[in-house]
Amino acid sequence: MLGPMPPPTRAAPIRTAADAATWLEGLIDLEKRPDFAYERIQLAPIRELVRRLGHPERSLPVVHIAGSKGKGSTALLIEAVLRAAGRRVGTFTSPHLERWTERFRIDGRDVAGPTLARAVEALRPHVEALRGGAPALVPSFFDATTAAALLLFREAKVDFAVLEVGLGGRLDSTNVCTPVVTCVTSIELEHTDKLGTRLAEIAVEKAGILEAGVPAVLGPLPAEARAAVVARADEVGAPVVELGRDFHVAIRAEGVEGLRLRIVDGCVDVEARLPVLGAHQATNAALAVACARRAIGGAGEGLADAVVRGLAAATLPGRVEVLGRDPTLLVDSAHTAVSARALARVLAGLPRRHTRLVLSVSSGKDVGSILGALLPLANEVTVTRAEPRRSLSAAEIATAVRSAAPDLPLRVVPNPHLALRAAREGLGPGDLLCATGSVYLAGIARRVLRRPVAES
Question: Which among 228, 378, 408, 444 could bridge 200 via Cys, Cβ 3.0 to 4.6 Å?
Answer without folding.
Answer: 228
